[in-house]
Amino acid sequence: MTDGPVIAIVETGRGEYGLQPLIRARELGLRPVLVTDDLGRYAVDDASRELIERTVHAVVSADTTDGAAVTEALRPYQERGELCGALAVIDYYVTVVAEAARALGLPGLAPQAAHAARNKLRTREVCLEHGVPAPRFVRAMSAREAVRAAESVGFPCVVKPLTEAASIGVRLCRTAEEVAGHYGLLTESALDMRGIAKPGGVLVEEYLTGYELSVEVLTTGAGPQVVGVTDKALAPHPYFVEIGETFPTQLPDAVRDEAVAVALAALRAIGHDFGAAHVEIKMTADGPRLVEVNARMAGAQIGRIIREATGLDLLAEVLRLHAGLEPELSVSRNAAAASRYLTAVDGGVLDGFGGVDLVERLPGVLAVDLYARPGTEVRRGRSNADVLGHLVVRADTPAEAARWAETAALMLTAEVRPADEPC
Ligand SMILES: Nc1ncnc2c1ncn2[C@@H]1O[C@H](COP(=O)(O)OP(=O)(O)OP(=O)(O)O)[C@@H](O)[C@H]1O
Ligand SMILES: [Mg+2]
Fold it and tell me: Which superfamily is assigned to 136-206 in CATH?
């Protein structure tokens, strides 16, 4: 296994979750190279440092906010004929990886398509040009413009950053004051959550009233292959924290097909020609509307529930595709799975978790993973980054998987005391 082809993974998610692509690459006989500008983001303690050392072939230091810098950092591997591919598993690096892959002659997404997916304003513009059903939108460059934009798209509206992920900074605003206040918050920093320069301003969008699903796609030489559709559950507004997923969707085929048609139209509009895509759709009274296109594999536990439901290991197939191999999208199981996420109801200090013993008695529970450490400060969930833990359930049908998962989620509690109250 030590002399397999090298695959470059440019940054990754935090915690154990982020190591999965590296581990899976190893299992596939590839040599994973982690390209990062800050190894400390992942090697947070001795255990993670050791796991990274055991898993990666090498850690390559580079300015991962810059396609040319990543290209140069990987060039020695390419010149030695070792490098077979490069992959971004989180949104922030999709464009950089597309540029580096193009420069190094590796399989990859067209850089223009990567940019169109990565920048929510660009997504909206190309989708508007191509007639993809989506919310009305205005980019605002000042608080005053944001309020005017909200008046033009109508209240309530959604105010969001152009290039974050995990719902960070996405907020429902009902009044001009909320819009102006949120504009101020979003534009306080010139850098995004990964330290990359942000485009200026915010997007103000029409609020799509409906339920949410996502369409998981893998685009190969044979065109876009729809892996399936995921039902999503969200926490109450004004934020949009994802608190659950079920795969496959429980919706009737006709509804599912309408959503898939809009997702594929959006992928055509941005020119998606390679790799995974996770396309988010709101089903409204007027039909499906595009929320956004992510030119990467679905995050959170979606890959896991697809694997539990179908036997298809999407992460492995995405790695194979980027390594220049033919992915195998065959399904070996006809079941269903669901995930649910735990967030704090109120802010304070996390004392611990309750109900794990009850959840473990339920049928089909495959994982209860609680990563927030007792003693740490938590807040009411505002984005997916505030999730404290999750559970995964498998059942024969999506309806059963969703019911068991919801039942489990209601048993699980995060015990939080006010920050100023002694324990
Ligand atoms: N115009 C809108 N109308 C209604 N809801 C919206 C709108 N825009 C965004 N949302 C909600 O906010 C969530 C996050 O928005 P969006 O997908 O644009 O941000 P993101 O940070 O890239 O998300 P992620 O990376 O988690 O997929 C969406 O999944 C959706 O639930
Ligand atoms: Mg999204």
Answer: ATP-grasp fold, A domain (3.30.1490.20)
